[in-house]
Design brief:
This protein has 363 residues and is an alpha/beta fold. It contains nine helices and 14 strands. Strands 1-4-3-7-8-9 form a six-stranded parallel β-sheet, with helices on both faces. It has a four-stranded mixed β-sheet with strand order 11-14-12-13, with helices on both faces. A two-stranded parallel sheet has the order 2-10. A hairpin with a 3-residue loop joins strand 5 and strand 6. Helix 8 packs parallel to helix 9. The longest helix is centred in the first third of the chain and has 32 residues.
């Protein structure tokens, strides 16, 4: 039996309602088999999950170091993002974060809207899938609770190439047309590397600490899936990793980040230059496809956050670093060593890190 009711994951009641269907069991697919099925077109990535494992002690020490070094910056950007949202919404705010990278950001931003900006804010977390769109059953659920369509703000951690940003815009636009509503199709992020977001605190590639971990910093929720038996009124699915409760950092991470954000003296930042970020992204992707002989741009993942996802969840071909000794990429170097992934140093890289996914045709 699956569960359809909203649930808070490992966060406190009131921090977030995950609009996901908890799957009691899952036939996990190992990473190599999943990659082959995805690239051959036999199955969509949203139909499969690979099992997550507990991070090593060494890796958790790197996470702690990343938090110590980067959480003050992340906290300031959370304040900036909350302030930008408050300035664009006149009344109540309905934060809708995109699972999972958006979840910790959504928790903190919703708290800041309430505690720093004095706004009425609630937070839901929903699934969005490339080539499949946003979970429309989840959107209908939010509207059924009486929240105004105009109050909804979609939140994520960062943009890589802007794929999910475009997926969001297209699928929400279709939802608006179908239901006669006017939900803002834009995405609000901490770091907009692709120059694709509607609103961002920055366009810098820096280590957003929550990107280092999977479920254990995102409410113990897995990456979302779309089971074959998904009904029209069913939420997208997930696995809840209750067995990781003893090593979960989700609540503590959000609490620490909130405390930093509430105490932060945040100067008004200059507007981000989305146009420059977009040009930089497009120029790099074109050059990288030529340099590495990549025919499918989906195999190139720019930025620390996306590069980390590749090493945690995909079959990497290559990790490219601008500076191997930079503290922001220490966890990537450790993952590359553990997984025996080749590392290339490129001092002219416009990002701290880029990962290339191994093509199935490479064998």
């Amino acid at each position: 039996m699956t569960e359809h009711a909203p649930f808070p994951g490992s966060y406190r009641i009131g921090d977030v309602d995950f609009l996901l269907r908890r799957l009691p069991q899952q036939d996990f697919v190992d990473v190599a088999a999943k990659e082959a099925l995805i690239q051959s077109g036999q199955r969509h990535y949203s139909q499969m999950l690979s099992p997550e494992s507990a991070p090593s002690g060494r890796y958790m020490r790197l996470f702690d170091a990343a938090c110590a070094a980067n959480n003050p910056r992340m906290a300031q950007d959370c304040v900036r993002l909350a302030g930008l949202i408050a300035g664009r919404r006149a009344q109540q705010v309905t934060i809708v974060s995109l699972a999972r990278a958006g979840t910790p950001v959504g928790v903190v931003v919703a708290r800041l809207l309430r505690e720093r900006f004095g706004r009425d804010a609630v937070h839901y977390c929903v699934s969005i899938v490339r080539d499949r769109g946003i979970d429309t059953a989840a959107l209908r659920h939010i509207l059924a609770q009486g929240y105004a369509p105009e109050s909804i703000v979609f939140v994520d951690g960062w943009t890589g190439k802007g794929v999910i940003t475009r997926e969001l815009a297209g699928s929400v636009d279709a939802f608006n047309m179908r239901h006669g509503v006017a939900i803002d199709t834009g995405l609000y992020v901490l770091s907009d590397l692709a120059g694709a977001a509607a609103c961002a605190a920055s366009c810098d590639d820096y280590l957003i600490s929550s990107s280092i971990l999977n479920a254990t910093v995102s409410g113990l929720v897995s990456r979302t899936v779309m089971p074959d038996e998904l009904g029209a009124d069913d939420f997208h699915g997930c696995v809840f990793y209750a067995g990781f409760a003893g090593i979960d950092r989700s609540q503590a991470f959000a609490d620490d980040l909130t405390a930093l954000a509430l105490a932060a003296d945040v100067a008004e930042a200059p507007p981000v230059d989305a146009h420059a970020a977009r040009e930089r992204s497009q120029a790099y992707l074109g050059a990288a496809m030529r340099r590495y002989g990549v025919a499918d741009v989906n195999l190139i993942k720019p930025g620390i956050g996306e590069a980390t996802r590749v090493l945690l969840r995909r079959v990497p071909r290559l990790l490219v670093l601008r500076d191997a000794d930079a503290p922001d990429v220490a966890h990537l170097a450790a993952l590359a060593e553990e997984k025996q992934v080749p590392v290339e140093i490129d001092p002219n890289l416009p990002y701290h890190a880029v990962s290339l996914i191994r093509s199935a045709s490479d064998g």
